[in-house]
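Practice problem: predict the structure.
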Amino acid sequence: MWDGHHHPFSIARRAVGNGPMAPSPSSSRGEPSRKATRLDLFEYQGKQFFASYDIPVSKGEAVTTVDDAVAAAERIGQYPVVVKAQVQVGGRGKAGGIKLADNADEVREHATNILGMDIKGHVVKVLWIEVASDIAEEYYASFTLDRSAKKHLGMLSAEGGVEIEAVAAENPDAIAKIWIDPVDGLDEATAREWVKAAKLNPAAEDGAVDVLLKLYRAYTEGDADLTEINPLILKPTGEVHALDAKVTLDGNASFRHEWSEFEATQVRDEREQAAHEKGLQYVGLDGSVGIIANGAGLAMSTLDVVNQVGGSPANFLDIGGGANADVMAGALEVINNDPAVRSIFINIFGGITRGEEVANGIVEALRRVDIDAPIVIRLDGTNAEEGRAILEPHLSDKLQMQPTMLDAARTAVQLAASAS
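Answer:
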């Protein structure tokens, strides 16, 4: 089904959430609060990804020096070219990070000015040099996951080339949305109806249908959280073409793909990098309550509960099924090194990992790591009573235990507030 009517939702990227736009399309490339297992690609990587699914993209090369930029333009052999800053943040054009060059001298000038440029805290280290495209019309297209509907969500608009948030706010009827059952997939007839519902130029219909089918295939077969083209252009000669690319991949699927190049270019803050080196699933946030939980679902629920009781999470940290001393010590060390953390909430539900193993891991970890902030533990599930008995002799003002997630969250928030 498609729907061109507006529904109140937040399109801005969030670290966690159940709304249709939790992975968010558009303006916030590489914000700090992203899920740790997501791989945000640069534009040039997104175009390479799209090209592997036969989506038409502009011919170009990624370079890291001014001389290489000039050489790339000469190899492309077709002026004008566009010199584009590669940063995972919106607003490149307004910041002067996208320039048109009619000859090699202009390529050199623009590359010199853009390399090293700071765009919203992101320093430009890579440029994408591509053939300039003639544009008749600009559209918007994306696929992501609507968690609440348990379906894929596609969005298509005849108003592209601008932030989709602005379109949603100013002219919501311009966005045609479609929900796709993963079992059924997207067929050509449905895609064609969707294009008509979005009121794209009839001259673009066949090309848009073709690109949307390929974009959906890239999204699903490519294990992406988000595939977005903004703008998707109609050329004066009638071709439909991806002029930009934004792709977020699900890092949990990396075992099925060769993504080492994408992994190597991920932008992480110091906390995320330290956690990554320890093999931990971590996202740095802006709050004061450090979170450790086993399982992404429980970690996300823990963040929600901390927010509900008036606190603010400092991170998302999922230790997975292992809560041994090495894993727990690594998790505590990462959180302890965050100066914003005022308390730590360890929320463990034992399943395959038994409660006494978790408790022994926590005790041993505390022997290894000198923790500054007070810790609140909630331990439940398999052999939880045995685990709580192991922890009991170690309890103090700095190490507290609560029977429920809600009680533990309240205590951790109170401790954080009193330490602020």
